[in-house]
């Protein structure tokens, strides 16, 4: 099943005053069949840049392996991390160069560099748009309904975590292709952090009480 198309998902990326928040669900579906309840949809590219994926699992994982390798090579050759801008542009060029046989993916690239949070969305043929907030996948219309009301780029990471989790919960409740829990990642001046399942459960419980 892993090489088939991931028809539905919900991923969320938010820029904050002091970093980035990324949230995703864990369900991989193929038509009406739930192919996996533990699908990984957020990837660390370096200590200050990460990505979320929606679309073909095989295509997404191949791209993430490629970008992780490129980021490591860049760091070895230059002595510092690849910036989120550079990662996004390189990935856009890779996608554009394969537009005859495109990668069937929709991506969010986000990172924190020189005290600034940056976030980009990419389509399958390399369309690159800088955003302050973004959501991808079949559950994104429900997520945007919450984000439009509650999100602010001036909020801190800790203030926007509940916003992201409430937006993801809205998708979990109404989109049948979104489900099976939440993943949460943050990037700040301290670097990349992936939250443990129990931490996410506790944060979501608090966020949903409000």
Question: What's the topology here?
Answer:
Blueprint: E1 11-16, E2 19-25, E3 28-30, E4 33-36, E5 42-46, E6 49-55, H1 57-78, H2 84-97, E7 105-113, E8 116-122, E9 128-130, E10 133-136, H3 140-150, H4 157-174, E11 182-188, E12 191-194, H5 197-209
Antiparallel strand pairs: 1-2, 1-10, 2-11, 3-4, 5-6, 6-7, 7-8, 8-9, 11-12
Descriptive labels:
alpha+beta, about 210 residues, 5-stranded antiparallel sheet, single chain, 5 helices, Glutamine Phosphoribosylpyrophosphate, subunit 1, domain 1
Instruction: Summarize the main sheet.
Output: 5 strands, antiparallel
Distance between the termini: 38 Å
Q: Give the overall pLDDT as a whole number.
A: 90
CATH superfamily descriptor: Aminohydrolase, N-terminal nucleophile (Ntn) domain
CATH topology group: Glutamine Phosphoribosylpyrophosphate, subunit 1, domain 1
- Please state the second-level CATH architecture: 4-Layer Sandwich
Number of helices: 5
The CATH class turns out to be Alpha Beta
Runs with pLDDT <50, length 5+? 1-6
Order of helices and strands: EEEEEEHHEEEEHHEEH
Give the spatial strand order of the biggest sheet.
10-1-2-11-12
Oligomer: single chain
Number of domains: 1
Measured by DSSP, the beta-strand proportion falls in 25-35%
**Proportion of helical residues:** 25-40%
Structural features, described:
There is one protein chain. Helix 3 (140-150) runs antiparallel to helix 4 and helix 4 packs across helix 5. Strands 10-1-2-11-12 form a 5-stranded antiparallel β-sheet, with helices on one face. It has one domain (11-209): Glutamine Phosphoribosylpyrophosphate, subunit 1, domain 1 (4-Layer Sandwich), CATH 3.60.20.10. It has 5 helices and 12 strands. It has 210 residues and is of the alpha+beta class. It has helices at residues 57-78, 84-97, 140-150, 157-174, 197-209, and strands at 11-16, 19-25, 28-30, 33-36, 42-46, 49-55, 105-113, 116-122, 128-130, 133-136, 182-188, 191-194.
């Amino acid at each position: 099943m892993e090489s088939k198309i991931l028809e539905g998902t919900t991923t969320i990326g938010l820029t904050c005053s002091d970093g980035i928040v990324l949230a995703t669900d864990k369900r991989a579906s193929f038509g009406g069949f739930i192919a996996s309840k533990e699908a990984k949809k957020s990837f660390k590219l370096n200590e200050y840049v990460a990505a979320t994926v929606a679309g073909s699992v095989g295509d997404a994982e191949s791209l993430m392996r490629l970008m992780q390798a490129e980021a490591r090579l860049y760091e070895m050759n230059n002595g510092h991390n690849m910036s989120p801008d550079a990662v996004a542009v390189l990935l856009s060029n890779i996608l554009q160069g394969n537009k005859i046989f495109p990668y069937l993916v929709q991506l969010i690239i986000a990172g924190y560099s020189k005290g600034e949070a940056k976030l980009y969305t990419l389509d399958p043929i390399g369309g690159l748009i800088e955003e302050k907030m973004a959501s991808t996948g079949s559950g994104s219309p429900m997520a945007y309904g919450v984000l439009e009301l509650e999100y602010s780029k001036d909020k801190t990471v800790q203030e926007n975590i509940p916003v992201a989790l409430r937006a993801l919960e809205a998708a979990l409740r109404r989109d049948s292709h979104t489900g099976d829990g939440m993943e949460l990642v943050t990037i700040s001046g301290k670097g990349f952090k992936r939250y443990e399942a129990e931490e996410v459960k506790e944060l979501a419980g608090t966020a949903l009480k409000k």
